[in-house]
Amino acid sequence: MDADEFLNEYLFSVIVTGVFGYVFSGQMERKNPDGTHEILFPNGCVKFYRMDGREEFIFPDNTVYQVDPSNGNAILFLPNGQKEIHSSNWKKRIYPDGTTKTVFSDGTLETEYPNGRIRRKDSCGNLVFDLLSSTATLQGETSGLSRLV
Question: How many CB atoms lie within 10 A of CB 87?
Fold first, then answer.
């Protein structure tokens, strides 16, 4: 066998361009001249290994999943314009209108709105505070609104 090899129960067909495929799974791999390693899956997904260490996975619906090697954060770009960031301590979703929702590892939920309003709830869903500019509503207050100076 000159161009075909039998390795780990998969038959590889190596082409001069560096493209080879796993015959039994339908998966194709390509090593590009710039050093990028690309894996094409039969369901339409594509996985890239970049030279700088980043991993990128593109789903058929154009959702993009990236892993940042510098801090280990995972970033998800959704087709509807939303962006989601996962770290070891929190998960953050950024909406196209500028609203940001963050869920912390202790279950605390914080929502930041484009107008500057910040709302925080504890892990049980109880309102901890709701701030709009210099106006705040604090849990346990009977007056409703108070000025923070």
Answer: 15
Strand locations in 1-149, DSSP E? 4-7, 10-13, 19-22, 27-31, 37-40, 46-49, 55-58, 64-67, 74-77, 83-86, 90-94, 100-104, 109-112, 118-121, 127-132, 135-138, 146-147
User: Is residue 9 situated within a structural domain?
Assistant: yes
Task: Provide the domain count of the chain.
Answer: 2
Distance from C-alpha of 94 to C-alpha of 147, rounded to nearest angstrom: 28
Q: For the domain that residue 56 is a member of, what is the CATH number? A: 2.60.450.20
Residue 24 pLDDT more than 70?
A: no
For residue 125, give its domain range. Answer: 89-149
Of 19-23, 36-40, 80-84, 112-116, where does mean pLDDT reach its minimum? 19-23
